[in-house]
Amino acid sequence: MSDDAKPKKKKGGGMKMILLIVIAMVVGGAGAAGGLYAAGFFSPKAEGPKEDPNKPVLVLAGESAEEVAKAHGYAGGGGGEGGGHEGGSGGGHVASGVHVPAKGIDLPTPANPAAYQATYFQLQTPFTSNMSDTDAFAQISLAVSTYYDIRVVEAIKAHETAIRSQVLMMLAEQPVEALSTPQGKRALQGKIKAIINDILKQKTGYGGVDNVYFTNFVIQ
User: Fold this and answer.
1) Residue 159 CA: distances (Å) to CA of 137, 164, 183
2) Rounded distance between C-alpha atoms, residue 95 and residue 46, angstroms
3) Cα dihedral 114, 119, 123, 128 in deg (nearest 10)
4) Read out DSSP for the chain?
5) How far apart are CA 107 and CA 5, in angstroms?
6) Residue-level pLDDT, tens digit, the chain, 220 residues
7) PANTHER family attached here (predicted)?
8) Could you give the domains of the chain?
């Protein structure tokens, strides 16, 4: 029998099989992708609470407290008396999507204070108050320090009225004998520091005052 008599193989059968396999892979892949999408695999990952861009940050030794604040989003100025509580830079307005605890946050003193720049701020008007159960009165002048950027000072300026009110009420409750001793004066420093930080936390969400200093102290 000649070679011409042999039955010829049918063409196209192999190609059909390959096409069927490719289609099956495409369909299967689409189904898998759909399942992953439904499961949220391709959805943007949920982010946690954002850090408040108005949160004061530590200032390294030799740096400018104002420049550090500007580098972290501080616009500058606007910290006048009573003017910062509605979104002004000095009032510490909390950005949307940012979580700040209702009672505010104490900004801790750095473990190595020498590595950071202290900023000092003098409250211009003295505090004058009658003393408890006596005709004597105390007049004190205050300065504060912070290792954090200028937003702490701006917050003090913006909320000085509230600070002065609370400090004066506390002074009126002090017996003259207690403030006549070094121990009594140190205790008073701690009380004033706590008052200032509590008001800053209430108004802006953050404390930041590291210490209080008496630049004048008179009892008469």
Assistant:
1) 25, 9, 29
2) 18
3) -10
4) --GGGSPPPPSSHHHHHHHHHHHHHHHHHHHHHHHHHHTTTTSPPPP-PBPPTTS--B-BTTS-HHHHHHHTT-------TT-SSSS-GGGTPPPTTB---TT-BPPPPPSSGGGB--EEEE-SSPEEEEPBTSS-EEEEEEEEEESB-THHHHHHHHTHHHHHHHHHHHHHTSBTTGGGSHHHHHHHHHHHHHHHHHHHHHHHSB----EEEEEEEEE-
5) 97
6) 555 555 555 555 666 666 556 555 654 555 555 555 555 555 555 555 566 778 999 999 999 999 999 999 888 765 444 433 333 344 444 444 455 566 799 999 999 999 999 999 999 999 999 988 788 889 999 999 999 999 999 999 999 999 999 999 999 999 998 898 999 999 999 999 999 999 999 999 999 999 999 999 999 8
7) FLAGELLAR PROTEIN FLIL
8) 63-72+103-217 (3.30.479.30)
